[in-house]
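$ ./design --mode recover --in tokens.txt
reading tokens...
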């Protein structure tokens, strides 16, 4: 059965511009701000569902449109085309090991805008796949107090060295360690055990670099939605089995709980 496009009609929309780059941002909810950074190929119905869960949990989801067609369902051709565009984009450095992508500067500015408007204790950020490690760099801003890295996929693991890299500068990693020591902030990471795009070596690096500041959730491949593409990859979206008692649903609940603990 053909998947339906999500109209996103229950979200409000505004344009945000920073450094001469203007993008649409979809917004839903009330309460502290959470920047929801979508995965390849874009704001799919499953990504929008996650943003709705954030809103239902008492927070405000800010979901910027970074690439793809908002609301369009996933297909293999669509995902490959989006990946190809990201690879040639100047805003995504898909092979960078010790620095983040330029688009993170725009995302940091959006988080600042959300914090200036809503206030509260601070802002959360959830990255997925291509955007998975961006929240590490966003933590350089003191108002970013809840970082979630779901299946962080950059740099693409084309070599053993890149498989272990985390697409963040030494400064960003040192900052996360410092904030854990001073503020007890932690970083939450999620992946499937057999995911070749977000390999175990990457989480091993995060454990080594961040120590107790890193909380890892690694799910068995058999916990993934069997109707979705293989190998399992998208913990909070495409491969989620949205049913109480399922490991992926427990992971989703932990993410929402983590955000609430920090922000509320």
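writing sequence...
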């Amino acid at each position: 059965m053909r998947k339906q496009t999500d109209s996103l009609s229950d979200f409000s929309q505004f344009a945000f511009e920073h450094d001469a780059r203007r993008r649409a941002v979809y917004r839903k909810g009330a309460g502290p701000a959470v920047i929801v950074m979508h995965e390849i190929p874009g704001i799919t119905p499953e990504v929008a569902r996650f943003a709705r869960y954030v809103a239902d949990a008492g927070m405000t989801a800010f979901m910027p449109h970074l690439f793809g067609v908002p609301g369009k369902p996933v297909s293999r051709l669509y995902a490959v085309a989006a990946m190809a565009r990201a690879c040639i984009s100047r805003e995504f450095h898909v092979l960078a090991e010790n620095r983040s992508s330029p688009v993170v500067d725009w995302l940091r500015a959006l988080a600042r805008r959300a914090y200036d408007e809503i206030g509260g204790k601070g802002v959360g950020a959830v990255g997925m796949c291509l955007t998975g490690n961006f929240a590490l760099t966003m933590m350089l801003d003191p108002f970013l107090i809840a970082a979630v890295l779901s299946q962080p996929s950059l740099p693409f693991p084309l070599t053993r060295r890149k498989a272990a890299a985390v697409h963040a500068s030494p400064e960003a990693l040192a900052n996360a360690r410092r904030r854990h020591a001073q503020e007890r902030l932690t970083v939450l990471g999620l992946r499937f055990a057999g995911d070749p795009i977000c390999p175990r070596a990457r989480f091993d690096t995060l454990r080594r670099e961040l120590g107790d500041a890193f909380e890892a959730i690694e799910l068995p491949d058999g916990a993934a939605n069997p109707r979705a593409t293989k190998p399992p990859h998208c913990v909070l979206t495409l491969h989620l089995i949205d049913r109480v008692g399922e490991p992926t649903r427990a992971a989703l609940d932990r993410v929402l709980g983590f955000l609430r603990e920090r922000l509320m």
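exit 0
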